[in-house]
Amino acid sequence: MSYNYSHLSTGIRGLDRVIKGVMPGDNIVWQVREIDDYRYFVQRYAKFADLKNQRLVYFRYASHPPLLDPEEFPAAEIHHPDPEEGFEPFITQIHETIKQHGRGGYYVFDSLSDLANAWYSDRMLGNFFMLTCPYLLDMEALAFFALLRDQHSYSALTPVHETAQVIFDIYKSRDNIYVHPLKAQQRYSATMYMLHAMRENEFVPVTNSALNSEILAFTPFHSTDHAFEERDRWNRYFQEAALAVQQSREVEIDPETRQRHLRRLLEMVVTRSERMQELAARYLEIENLLEIGKRMIGTGLIGGKATGMLLSRAILQKDAPELRDVVEVHDSFYVGSDVFYTYMVINGCWWIRRQQKDTETLLGVAEYARRVILTGHFPEDIVRKLSDMLDYFGQSPIIVRSSSLLEDNYGNAFSGKYESVFCPNQGSSQRRLENLLTAIKLVYASTLSEKALHYREQMGILDKDEQMSLLIQRVSGDLHGNYFFPAVGGVGYSYNPYAWHPEIKPESGLIRIVYGMGTRAVDRADDDYTRIAALSAPDKRPESSIDELRKFAQKRVDAIDLTANRLLPVDFDEIAKYSPPQELRLAASQDPQTNAPYISFNGLFKNTPFVAHMQKLLGTLDSAYQYPVDIEFTLNFTGEEGCRSLAASQDSRGEEVMACDPAANYRINLVQCRPFEVRKSEEVSLDFAEDKDKQVLLAARQGTVIGRSRALNPRRLVLVSPDHYGALPVSQKHLAARAIGKIMKVTPEELPAVLVGPGRWGTTTVSLGIPVTFSEICQAACVIEVVAMHEGLIPDVSLGTHFFNDLVEFDIMYLAFYPGKEGSELNRELLAGFRNRYLDLVPEPEYRALAEIITVVDFSRDELVLAADIVGQSYQLYRVPAGKEDFDNVP
């Protein structure tokens, strides 16, 4: 029988195309839950060999039912080597058979897992494969092997994974077959290592993150290093809890024993904060904690961000069951806090970190420590488990998120203080692993960043135990051409501190959303805009006209470019070419003048239950936390596949299968949840009538007020001249920002300060405003943004950004002033008459030229009043001069 190299196939041409064709000598390993899953593919393979008149050899040695029936495949040669006779006789018989047949041929092996049973050794299974696979490769033969998933240790899996040419994971979910290629030696495509759905004889990449998570949730991840396998105290406690759960299925466990296991695992894995422990104990079950343990890399706590994400999902599952088909299933991983400590110790960073008694001492060595962290190495077992995790995710983009012990807790949000790093996850397995390790190092190094250290000092927690755990998540989104992003990304608040219209109810919550990655919603990087909606009145826009709606709509979309292998901003006009029409109908509106689409989300608000879902979600979390909450979320449309999945879920629960519109079916992915530090407004009454007893410095009948309504008595006014600042070169603008930082550093608490300046405070884009860091201005009582940087730049009210969270957490008022707008008043003449204390506070020679740009005026107690009304969006900053002549603030 001749061997035809053009007749090489798995038996399914669609599957051949996924791995860019079958090559001579391919040893193909199928990792399956049940042998019947393997049998399906063996049958297709054997029929193809029979059809093409190719030699088919079957080694029949296992206890499971035969894979090939001699009556159905009479041409197949069936050999019966016996593993019970011992390793050497068994492998010798197989190799002799292969040798006798010469080059080529189609080979089928029974399950390799039976060999481990016969020899009582995973290691010997691995030895058999390491000897047989290269022999078949040398003979240019095709061979099928199977392994039962989750049944073997590192000793068996590593030799198989390193030696095989092709490895497939097979999943079955609700009668659908999915193939996940883990390895295809010397072959690559942009979607090869994604999960693929079988559709007749074709295999279609599952690019939607919601569907990926939903499918893989039925077959939980297990590392080659089995969870709870090692006999240390950590794993022993997990084993004891798992045994208790197993026994409870037969005999009811007394509540005290169950509570003991729950409390011990909570303290080991989740949190040591008493307040968070009490909340977690109400909603998390032992089974939830065992699942966390199976997805942990290393030991220790999972940190605040991971705890908030898991706890919020458990709350919704228990208290809002109507949302169970709306909230996207997650399949996250956790790198324990002990891994961070271990990394710091073995790379010589621990002693440096111990010096952080104050920021001045630590900042001197922090830069060196960050360099050491970025060039360090990880323990081998941690690298191995991270590699297994990457196999699980395939080519799906992932994100490495900080999840420190103090993060996202009551009183400490740490918004934007630590890094989160996207990994597009493209290229070879080695390249993807290297990129992941670099991302982890970047997050670890951010624990010693200047902004993180200043924040901890300001919050009085510099000496607290702050270990860095990691939350590694599948990036939520779908493919749009070569771009990967979600249809909606954003933040939500259960309490709205920015009620700009009388019909808005603060307790109904607020969202700030964008089309694409949520990075554009939480970072203030450029002069783009977002959609802000009060959930009680989403049609009441902060913008006042249709022209403003179009002008101040989002123009750019953050997306992962899988070709460039990084996160990039892309013009909406460009990315819209690749967006499904039904998605655009919900995310965008048509400009009646140009007929061009602009992002509005009007369709999402009006034609789907999205607003009601978000109100229910935020309200439920607020009630459980007994505290306002702040969430990050994404939304993905799941189409017909999502409708099929939804119907199957409802049917499995014995519920009526509801009608589903594929064009509007979506999943909300709850990425993060934390307590939201907000104070309620005071009653404020503003009188804009002329009053000879007060001198108005700055006022707006219709401005922008962020924060709660209240009246303050500032003692220091720092004014950056809008006229002169815009003309400064970039270097001088940075110098001006540092000068403001110096002024604020020497401003005592008893002198509450108001900062007034052009453009956006805290921007990273110098052309848009003043590039101060939050740590430089965190002691300010109020920050006022003068809209005068360039034509068309309105204030980005920043709701939902990390900058906004800092303002709320530190109770800083944020106002916008529009020069020239009716009702706006700026008394330049009066301001020019006060004595400028700038040079007293910033005497260094390199800063002296800025005395013409920056004015600092001090006032006596109760001399200056700042009153702001959030509902009326109006405010006044005025001086009450009577009886204040003795204070030295005039020439």
TrEMBL record:
Keywords in alphabetical order: Kinase, Pyruvate, Transferase
Entry-linked InterPro entries: ATP_grasp_subdomain_1, PPDK_AMP/ATP-bd
Keyword Oxidoreductase: no
A GO MF label: ATP binding
Pfam families reported in the protein's UniProt record: PPDK_N (PF01326)
Keyword Transmembrane: no
Source superkingdom: Bacteria
Residue ranges annotated for the Pyruvate phosphate dikinase AMP/ATP-binding domain, each copy included: 301-684
Identification of the protein by name: Pyruvate phosphate dikinase PEP/pyruvate-binding protein
Species for this entry: Desulfurivibrio alkaliphilus (strain DSM 19089 / UNIQEM U267 / AHT2)
